Amino acid sequence: xxxxxxxxxxxxxxxxxxAAAADDVRIAMVPKSLxxxxxxxxxxxxxxxxxxxxxxxxxxxxxAVVTAEGQIEVINALIAQRVDAIxxxxxxxxxxxxxxxxxxxxxxxxxxxxxxxxxxGRMLHLHPATAPGAAKSMxxxxxxxxxxxxxxxxxxxxxxxxxxxxxxAEMEKLLATEEFSGLKLVQTAYGxxxxxxxxxxxxxxxxRYPDLKAIIAPSTVAISxxxxxxxxxxxxxxxxxxxxxxxxxxxxxxxxxxxxSFAIWNPIDLGYAATYLAYDLIQNDxxxxxxxxxxxxxxxxxxDDKLETSLPQPFIYDATNVDEFAExx
Length: 329
What we know:
Elements (H helix, E strand, L loop, with lengths): L15 E2 L7 E6 L6 H17 L2 E5 L7 H14 L3 E4 L8 H9 L3 E5 L11 E3 L3 H16 L3 E7 L5 H14 L7 E8 L4 H14 L3 E6 L2 H13 L7 E4 L3 H10 L5 E3 L2 H18 L7 E3 L5 E3 L5 E3 L4 E3 L4 H5 L3
Parallel strand pairs: 2-3, 2-4, 4-5, 5-6, 6-14, 7-8, 7-9, 9-10
Antiparallel strand pairs: 1-3, 11-15, 12-13
């Protein structure tokens, strides 16, 4: 796992990042919502890549809340600006297809990262990790915290979140295997990408299932909210939270015991690689299965027959290393 210091940014107005000449390549990054530290770190990685490539401007904008309608409005504005490429973490894989097709018809290269747009609406997709690998990591961390048996629940983002749904589907498959057969999934709840709703959903789970032992939150927003709810309800040591989160947001929960371990890929690397791949799409006028695309310090990525590729597996954080990484992202 490679780490880079976050780049200082000065953002204003429509969240336009970087200064560029009129003839520069313009790559727009559209995360699920604004105010999410994961995507802010991804933005910093994009800025790092843009600086290395040279002549690239990064435009960073998103809706205030996690909705497809908000992303459609943002993408419409970017089409009007005639950007060269749009990189999207989708709030709904199917709802974004028409607007993405419109962008591509105007000559704009469209790719997704983190959470995919359906294949008809993008030219390639960059997974943050393989779905089976992410799912197994989360269940292994659960077993490490509570042992091989017990009731568990999931607090995810939205019912339409592509990547979370893939991870949950893979977890459900693994729960049917001998290795994880002692874990019983009692409910999957949705925080809609909002901290306060994720917190309320966690409180409801804690009250509804008195024998609950663990909550898995495959979302950087939900995991912090769930850990806070467990702490506030005085259930530290009785219920453990794990999943995917940022070291800077979870270090305190690791030290107080509500979280034993969690995982995440480096969001800086994710934004960095996505920017390079978007630039490759622009320079090569698209991509096809089998193509190997350059991604700077991240090496190269080969597209499979679905025009998809992936970062390495997530990295595990616990009390032995969380403070070191909390200083980075």
